[in-house]
Amino acid sequence: MADDGGAAPRVGCLSGILAAQARCDRVPPMTLRLVRSEGSSPAQPSHAEHDAYPFAETALAVAFADASDLSDVSAGRRLALAATPEISSDDAYLVLPHHAREALVPAFARGEAGRVAQWFSEAWVVRAELDGGRAPRLWIGAAWKVSELLARRPSRVVSVGGSTDATRAVNRLPFVAALARGGLLDARGAAAILSRGTYVGVSRMGVAELGLGADAAEPTFVWTEACSGGARVCVALAPTDDDAAVALVAPLTLVA
Known about the structure:
Blueprint: H1 15-24, E1 33-38, H2 47-52, E2 60-65, E3 78-80, E4 92-97, H3 104-110, H4 113-121, E5 124-131, E6 137-145, H5 146-152, E7 156-161, H6 165-171, H7 174-179, H8 187-194, E8 198-204, H9 207-210, E9 220-227, E10 230-239, E11 245-255
Parallel strand pairs: 2-4, 7-11
Antiparallel strand pairs: 1-7, 2-11, 3-6, 4-5, 5-6, 8-9, 9-10, 10-11
């Protein structure tokens, strides 16, 4: 896939994209109520699986590397980066192909599901130490292919039904609050997620609740796939104030 080029857009510059999506992307209203949030149901991974993959509920700093370098990522390797990412206090990074760098947030905002799925099929989650400077690199301690995490790992199951308490409860989950100050969902985003087979787009606009102008919007984005009785959040993405981004991989499954 060709690089899109151009300067990375600031979050505030996405207001036109988001407004256009809001006009053409109407969904019926839906009210939700949190019934239960299950952290230890039979669908949850075992302790051994949690030990093997420590970042199931960790916000990952997003980084970018040459696609050819992502063909084989393994422990002990030094991975050259396109730019220095936000430093992760957990040494937890999501590394995407460089050709997604300029277009990642706009693609989520426009609902470009094919491009998003392709980029994440090439992506890795790594535990690594960041070596910044003119030639930033990650010194990799462990690595997990995102496509394999999505295929094999269950997510935390959140059951919902009848009141607006649901979005508030989801937004207050510690790992969601760590991803985005405003949370993951608003009512419109929850309705869009639960009414479609696949959804890539805004899950929480954030402007009205934060009392900020359009140029200070802090939206949250998701890529979700339908599953039995609900929708699995494959990726949640939150741009940060310095034009970087953080993400969660397979954090939640929302069921009716």
